[in-house]
C-alpha cells in the first residue's frame, strides 16, 4: 500500500514547491527534502534565486547547484564559501581564499572531499614540495599550495579531456 502512495506524495511535494516557486521547470528541480522557502523566483528573468547562497540560477545552466545544495550549504556554514555566477554563466566557488571554476556536481564533490572531508589531511610541519600526478581539475594542488609549509606544487594531468576541463 505504501508504494502506491509514493506517486501521490511526490505530486503533493511538487505542488508545495510550485506554490512558492510558480514555474514548472524550477518546481520540478527543487529536492523534496528541501524547504521551498529557501528559494524564490525572479519574475522578470525567470531565474531561480537560492537565498542562502545569494545566487540566481539560469535555466539549464547551473541546475547542478541545486543537486549539490546540501554540500554547498555545509561548506558555507563550515568554511564560509562564497559562490558567484559570472555574466558568462561560469560558476566560481571560493573557499579559504582559493577560487575554483565549478562546472558540475563532481567538481563540488571533489572540493568537499578535499576541504571538508580532509581526504588529504597530512600533517605538514616542515617545508616541502608536492608532486600531484593525476591532478584532475587541480583542487588538491591548490589545497596544498595554500599551505604555508608547501614551497612548490607540481601538478600533472595525463588525460587531455580532464586537463582541458
**How would a textbook summarize the main sheet?**
3 strands, antiparallel
Which series of helices and strands comes N to C?
HHEEEHHEEEHEHEH
Percent strand equals 15-25%
Mean pLDDT: 87
Shape, principal axes of CA atoms:
elongated
- Structural category is alpha+beta
Oligomerization status of the protein chains: single chain
Lateral strand order in the biggest sheet:
1-2-3
The portion of residues assigned to helices is 25-40%
The total count of strands amounts to 8
Rg is 19 Å
Number of helices: 7
Outline the low-pLDDT stretches. none
Give the N-terminus to C-terminus distance in angstroms. 47 Å
Describe it.
By secondary structure, this protein is of the alpha+beta class. It has 7 helices and 8 strands, in the order ααβββααβββαβαβα. It has helices spanning 2-20, 24-29, 64-67, 69-79, 105-116, 139-145, 160-164, and strands at residues 39-41, 48-50, 55-57, 82-85, 91-95, 98-102, 128-133, 150-156. It has a 3-stranded antiparallel sheet with strand order 1-2-3, with no helix packed on it. It has a 3-stranded antiparallel sheet with strand order 4-5-6, with helices on one face. Strands 7-8 form a two-stranded parallel ribbon.
What descriptors fit this protein?
alpha+beta; three-stranded antiparallel sheet; 7 helices; 8 strands
Write the layout of secondary structure elements.
Elements: H1 2-20, H2 24-29, E1 39-41, E2 48-50, E3 55-57, H3 64-67, H4 69-79, E4 82-85, E5 91-95, E6 98-102, H5 105-116, E7 128-133, H6 139-145, E8 150-156, H7 160-164
Parallel strand pairs: 7-8
Antiparallel strand pairs: 1-2, 2-3, 4-5, 5-6
Amino acid at each position: 500500500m505504501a508504494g502506491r502512495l509514493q506517486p501521490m506524495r511526490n505530486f503533493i511535494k511538487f505542488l508545495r514547491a510550485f506554490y512558492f516557486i510558480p514555474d514548472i521547470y524550477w518546481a520540478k528541480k527543487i529536492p523534496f527534502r528541501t524547504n521551498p522557502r529557501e528559494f524564490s523566483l525572479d519574475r522578470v528573468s525567470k531565474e531561480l534565486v537560492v537565498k542562502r547562497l545569494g545566487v540566481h540560477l539560469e535555466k539549464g545552466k547551473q541546475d547542478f547547484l541545486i543537486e549539490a545544495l546540501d554540500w554547498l550549504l555545509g561548506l558555507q556554514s563550515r568554511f564560509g564559501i562564497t559562490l558567484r555566477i559570472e555574466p558568462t554563466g561560469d560558476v566560481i566557488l571560493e573557499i579559504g581564499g582559493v577560487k575554483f571554476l565549478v562546472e558540475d556536481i563532481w567538481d563540488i564533490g571533489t572540493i568537499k572531499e578535499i576541504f571538508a572531508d580532509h581526504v588529504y589531511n597530512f600533517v605538514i610541519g616542515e617545508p616541502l614540495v608536492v608532486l600531484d600526478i593525476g591532478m584532475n581539475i587541480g583542487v588538491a594542488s591548490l589545497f596544498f599550495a595554500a599551505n604555508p609549509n608547501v614551497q612548490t606544487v607540481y601538478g600533472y594531468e595525463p588525460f587531455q579531456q580532464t586537463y582541458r576541463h
